[in-house]
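ok here's the first one, seq then struct tokens
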Amino acid sequence: MNLTPVLVAAGVVFLAELGDKSQLMALAMAAKHRARDVFIGMFFAIVLMFGLAVGLGAILGTFLDDYRNVVAIVAGLIFIGFAVWTLRGDDDDDEDEDPDDLPASATGRVVMTAAFTAFVVAELGDKTQLASATLAVREGFWPVYIGSVAGEVAAIGLAIAIGALAGKHLPERLIRFGAAALFAVFGIIMIVQGIRG
């Protein structure tokens, strides 16, 4: 297996998730509850959500195989769109829903279920899911799935570790600009590759 798409998927997802609502939610939940329970719930949600997103992208990729160059250009434009989206921030970050507002005495099973559900809801249509589906159109299921899950687990694990230790969040503005710049770079590279064939 070529490791390049695995590493690209891991990097894109990790950077896109930094400062995102799912990571901040994981941080907040880990600040109040056992980090292990939060991680287990979110891990299974990550496996499910990225399986669906990457699977959809891979299926589309088999139908669009004869149009790889066009797909690369479209994927590049989508990634540039992600860069703009990242700079704008998520409009729904300030919603009133607070799945981390469970009682401090909540059982491990309740915390795992809440973490699983909160992650699934937060990630529906999120840029990390769309980015993974887009990459899978070009690179296939397994490399993108492995990389995406690894990148998301790393980002969520980082948030949970920080939440468990200090309850502080990463500097969102700096991370947002860095992630947007990388999305733009990946997008430009894909467009150039599509044009060159």
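and now the second one, same deal
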Amino acid sequence: MKVQSAEFVISNTEVAKCPTDGLPEYAFIGRSNVGKSSLINMLTGNKKLAKTSGKPGKTQLINHFIINGDWYLVDLPGYGYAKTSKTNRAKWEKFISEYLTTRKTLTNIFVLLDARLEPQKIDLEFMNWCGEKGLPFSMVFTKIDKLSSSALQKNLAQYKKEMLKYWEELPPVFTTSSVSGFGQERILNYIDQINTTLR
């Protein structure tokens, strides 16, 4: 799939205000500072689509972008560390979980994981929560350009070992670099395949 157009549609904190046209939605979520905005911009070929920031926790709303007039890319606030009050964080968590569990057009959740780190408790907990709720998700490792191939394989193996403690099989796994564009084609083709089955 080639991204011909990527346009911002709406930002909000209420699921009821999300688009109602029934197009499939693909949500992107991860710990603060995992490189989510850079990945979204790399996937869409638009460096200014999602706002990137050196400060974790920049995304604080549910952001809908329509891709090729055909499906939505949904940018969700990060979980975990972010310089914000507990009240704000609780508020985000409420509308994020409401969106994830009640949105009928949500087709897949791309859970972003920093390839440089060993398995993080908060990431494992989030993926297990998705499993408990029956939500389809994929694991997307970011920043693979920041470590050697052997270090990457070691971290991927650790994640696999941890995940197989809870899961019979792993969800789809993608490795990406926003710098080189690696992983763009595989993720877009995966989305395209799912969309084809929905038509």
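notes on #2: The beta strands are 6-12, 25-30, 62-67, 71-75, 106-114, 137-142, 173-175. The longest helix spans residues 86-102.
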